[in-house]
Specification:
18% of the residues lie in helices and 17% in strands. It is α+β, with helices and mostly antiparallel strands. Helix 5 (259-269) crosses helix 7 (299-309). The chain starts with 10 loop residues before the first strand and ends in an 8-residue tail after the last strand. 47% of the residues are buried.
Length: 512
């Protein structure tokens, strides 16, 4: 089962070298530092001799000349200063190049150039043993806490902007979730400064290896399996990176699928024909791997997979949280789930009527809707509508228990206006069939606001770090030409973070 193959495949990357490692989080903080993200290994930092100017000892190792093509600089890009003199920040050593990049990322993030510096939990030129695999031995490497300073609080909406800001400033940056690297590893952001002449070999591998940033992957090595797709939507490639020999990418705008087609394809990729296939799919989603536990709760991971493979979650809306043990019973406490549905992007519709008795002819479910049913305050089902519409039958892909106790992921009818008594939402599967419904049931629908607007409808977009017009055209199923026409006077080759532009959405054939 290859559900990861197409995620983030907006980039055609042309670079291939070696494979290597990631880092872990590191040490207990100094008294003026914020929350640590993991225990301190019993090691001692090994520092190079400080110099005011350093002779580069490593290179991006490019193998091709920059490729000219129509280029749209991502918002926030700024070429770094090649200054490798050492500075100490929060008890850690960085070179001036990395420090200046971090300050620029901080300004992109919240306007305060010092903010991200207060979150450093591991710097460069540091050996903390096997926990880091050597990525911090040279320059350009830094780990950041994801907690608000002085607290144990995570602001989910901040994490995505922080990663995007770091990338626009020139870092390959990834959010690492709890236990993602190894059992007990803490959540943090890991960043490698692109083009740093003093990168360690393991750090360089995170940029250009088979699992690397410029390939569209997460930088974590694998021996035999496919590398894991970058959860943040692919690399931000600035012109200075291309001029330094790092690979450019093309954004394929012609002949691409609409969001409805992507959703159907993603739903089809999840279907299984045997209990063994379902178990393999669950393993691939890291859902209680190797066990039969919780298969009835596979609905949550399936919804997350559909959201991300179909591209219905925009890059800035936290497309990176691991949900390996997503349980309906703990949905209220699962901040990773709710972080996917940003205010201003998704609308929440709450219906007091039980889903089994609701009039879907008067208020139909639409493709892309995420539906959550509950009875007496307990969540009962979670699914995404893959097909449907006004006056049309609605379908989803859900885990269905078979007579032998196994589960199959099947395309199932939810309801059909022409056959009022048929479909999962009209049976006891809904938790409240038409004949049994009481006032104890309810359901809510999470709907991305722009998906079903008439083609050409204008939506306002505030430019985020890393945005470019080709990527925005992909996200909103429109064309470059139509965005440019809707914004006369816009400097299309260099967007400014924070400016507002108008986007005519859903203009591609098939979105009517």
């Amino acid at each position: 089962m290859k559900t990861h193959k197409n995620l983030g495949a907006f980039f055609v990357i042309i670079f291939l070298l070696f494979a290597l490692a990631d880092c872990s989080t590191t040490r207990a903080p100094a008294s003026n530092e914020t929350l640590p993200v993991s225990p301190q290994p019993d090691t001692t930092a090994i520092l190079p001799v400080p110099t005011q100017t350093a002779t580069p000892t490593a290179s991006p190792n490019p193998t091709s000349s920059p490729t000219p093509y129509p280029y749209f600089e991502p918002a926030g890009c700024l070429a770094p200063v090649e200054d490798y003199s050492l500075v100490e920040v929060e008890g850690w050593y960085l070179n001036q190049r990395t420090l200046i990049m971090l300050k620029h990322a901080s300004e992109l993030f919240n306007g305060n150039p010092q903010y991200l510096l207060s979150l450093i939990t591991q710097g460069s030129y540091h050996d903390n043993g096997a926990a880091s695999w050597g990525t911090h031995l040279g320059g350009g490497a830094v780990d950041l806490s994801v907690m608000l300073p002085g607290t144990y609080t995570i602001v989910a909406s901040d994490l995505s902007r922080m990663v995007r800001s770091l990338r626009a400033a020139g870092f390959a940056a990834w959010y690492r979730d709890a236990d993602e690297l190894f059992s007990g590893s803490a959540m943090h952001i890991h960043a490698i400064a692109v083009g740093d002449a003093e990168l360690s070999e393991p750090a360089q591998a995170q940029l250009t290896s088979r699992e690397g940033y410029f390939f569209g992957f997460n930088g974590i090595p694998v021996d035999f399996n496919e590398p894991s797709i970058d959860r943040h939507g692919g690399p931000v490639v600035c012109s200075w990176m291309i001029n330094s020999g790092y690979p450019a990418y093309d954004v394929q705008l012609d002949g691409r699928m609409t969001w409805k087609q992507r959703l159907l394809q993603a739903a089809g990729s999840l279907l299984t024909s045997s209990g063994q296939d379902t178990r393999q799919l669950a393993d691939n989603l890291s859902f209680y791997p190797g066990t039969l536990r919780g298969m009835q709760d596979l609905e949550g991971p399936l919804v997350m997979q559909l959201l991300h493979e179909s591209g219905l979650i925009l890059d800035e809306d936290a497309p990176y949280f691991q949900l390996p043990r997503f349980r309906l019973s703990s949905l209220d406490d699962e901040w990773r789930f709710w972080a996917q549905f940003a205010d201003g992007v998704f609308t929440r519709y709450e219906h007091a009527s039980p889903v089994g008795a609701f009039d879907f002819l008067a208020w139909p479910l639409l493709p892309g809707d995420v539906v959550i049913s509950s009875i007496n305050g307990v969540y009962y089902h979670l699914f995404m509508v893959s097909e449907g519409g006004e006056g049309a039958a609605a379908y989803s892909v859900v885990p269905v228990e078979q007579p032998d106790g196994t589960f199959l992921i099947q395309r199932m009818l939810l309801y059909d206006p022409a056959r009022p008594g048929e479909g999962l939402l009209r049976t006891a599967w809904s938790g409240c069939s038409t004949a049994e419904c009481t006032d104890a049931g309810s359901f809510l629908v999470l709907r991305r606001q722009d998906l079903h607007l008439p083609p050409g409808s204008l939506v306002t977009r505030i430019i985020m770090p890393g945005d470019s017009l080709p990527l925005l055209a992909l996200q909103y199923d429109t064309t470059l030409e139509e965005i440019i026409t809707a914004n006369p006077g816009l400097a299309v080759d260099m967007l400014n973070v924070g400016e507002e532009i108008l986007i005519p959405v859903n203009t591609l054939a098939g979105n009517s």
